[in-house]
Amino acid sequence: MSALTDGAEDSGARGDELEALAAIFGADFELLPFEMGAVARVAIALESETAKAALEARLPRGYPSQVKPEFAVKALAGVSEALRRQLTETAAAAAARTPAGAP
């Protein structure tokens, strides 16, 4: 099995994606500190009158050409653990349906 590479094309695509997300979500978008094996990690705040959560995306080395992003929902207020798990599973399932490298 070959090691994942992270070329200029992946880096450029990620940069474009992060720039677009920042423009779309404004103050609700946050670039988080890096984790081991990740080249980017972001959070998007999701808030309603009764609940507040954050969708976190971890972009591993080799994203987007070789691997898919990893998602987690963080419950901040008014979101049950069951709903948080369901939202995380829904985000993961959506990512799983899209092949790595797909536009």
TrEMBL record:
What's the protein here called?
Answer: RWD domain-containing protein
> Which Pfam families did the record assign?
RWD (PF05773)
Q: Which domain of life is it from?
A: Eukaryota
Q: Which InterPro entries match?
A: RWD_dom, UBQ-conjugating_enzyme/RWD
Q: In what residue span(s) does the RWD domain sit?
A: 16-103
Q: SUPFAM superfamilies, per this entry? A: UBC-like (SSF54495)
